[in-house]
Amino acid sequence: MLSRKKLLLLSAGILVAATWIGYRAECRVMDSAGNKPLTVQSVVRRVTAPKERRQTLDRINEIRHLVGRLEASPREAAEAWEIIRALGIEDVQACLAEIPQKPQRHVNAMITQMLFQRWGQLDPQAAAEVASKPPYDQDYSVMLAIGISWAERDVEAALRWGKSQPDNTAQNMIGLTAGRLLVRQDPEKALSRALAEFPFATHGVISGLVSETANKEEARRKVVTELAALEEKRYLRSYLSQLGWFVDDKPEVLTALVKDLEQAGLPEAELKEFTQRMEQRVRHGDWERSITNTFGPDSTASAEEKQRLFSNWATNQPDKALAWAKKQGNLETLAESVRRNSNNLLRSNWQPASTPSMNPWEKGIVDQFQAWRERDTSAADQWLQTMPSDIRQHLSQDHATH
Question: What is the top-level taxon of the source organism (predicted)?
Fold first, then answer.
């Protein structure tokens, strides 16, 4: 007769073997998104994991295999992030261990980026150390995801990490996000600090300054004067180019801006070129012309291309985009824009607040949701109930200052 110890070992072996066989059978069926090579150790680790972790792994893998070789839909991406944004560090690591690097799949890259973004929220230093080694060290999207999370909690630490990166592309990607947040932290000194300490973040700082100063004449004049005094003129050109999006249909802003440039001593040739370019933009309105052409009867654009263009317009010029959608009666395009930009909000570390933030997806989304709800209350409310509480709270409140 077998001893109790041997019976326990035999039972454990049978359990592992049964799990191994069942799991291998599952993997043969669900291999469109790829699977990590199985080992006895990986199966044992899975079997001994807490029930909640196994359920999380199973659902993430279900999403991966459901998407397969295609790109995830907004709904699938939202579900994946809804799961991942609630994970702890050990669960994040367990999920990463299940995702293969080959074959390359869009869905695997998307979920890997989400997992590192969540890890960056919890422990950015540890996440960065893992991301700096194979197989992730060449994946700039992973570095960007960590950089976004890190900058949200400690912008200077994120900038120091970016400064330590040997790769210019990685530095620039981190700098774009961290630079914008440096402006939020200290708009008066952000530019001088970036130029002196974190040059790779200067373009991010300039992007943040555009949002901060576009509608503030005195602050805008100060930035123009400061940039015009620099020997490197590409920073001034970058500021003016981005500022141009705020000039659309606002001749008074253009007039004030030209005066600022004259006082700052911008060379006459560059001043003339900028003025002509901005006058043309004011006259024509690039976004609306693109939308009209793309949605026109002779357009060959796909439904996805149309939706992407409108959602971008709804982010950059929410009032105009909403007015156009209402006039056209284009309910589904408006509804899909709300769904997409809500997902973008959730993935950007945004939290509801009593006053508007600098988050580009926050502006206008309340009005867009209300317009959708007025025309199809049942569908809008049904969708809203599937969203996390922070989105439900934000879209259900009366935002007098949005």
Answer: Bacteria
User: How many CA atoms, within 13 angstroms, populate the side-chain half-sphere of residue 108?
Assistant: 21
Tokens describing residue 214? 């576009």
SS3 readout for 297-321: CCCCCCHHHHHHHHHHHHHHCHHHH
CA dihedral 303, 305, 309, 310 (to 10 degrees): 10
Q: How far apart are CA 231 and CA 213, in angstroms?
A: 22
Find out whether 43 and 19 touch, Cβ atoms under 8 Å: yes
What pTM does this model have? Answer: 0.62
**Residue 402: its pLDDT value, please?**
40
The continuous run of DSSP H or E covering 24 comes out as helix 4-29
Contact 110, 117 (CB under 8 A): no
Instruction: Answer for the pair 359, 348: CB distance below 8 angstroms, yes or no.
Output: yes
Q: Mapping DSSP to helix (H, G, I), strand (E, B) and coil, where does residue 387 land?
A: coil
The residue written with tokens 């367990």 in the block is: 94
Please provide the distance, in angstroms rounded to a whole number, between the alpha carbons at the two ends of the chain. 77
305, two tokens: 């291309």
Q: Is the dihedral of CA 91, 127, 73, 330 positive or negative?
A: positive
Instruction: State how far Cα 207 lies from the chain centre.
Output: 16
**Quick one: how far is CA 3 from the chain centroid?**
58
pLDDT at 245: 67
- Tokens, residue 366: 């309340």
- Residue whose pair of structure tokens reads 């989105």 in the numeric block: 391
CA nearest to 56, candidates 19, 82, 76, 38: 82
Domain ranges for the chain: 17-122, 137-201, 214-282, 302-402
The kind and range of the H/E element at 68 are none
Mean pLDDT per segment of 10 residues, for the chain of length 402 residues? 50 47 44 67 71 89 88 84 92 92 88 94 93 88 88 90 85 87 90 94 92 83 88 86 67 75 78 74 63 85 86 84 89 90 75 60 85 92 84 73 42
Q: Tell me how many degrees the CA angle 373-378-383 measures, rounded to the nearest 5.
A: 80
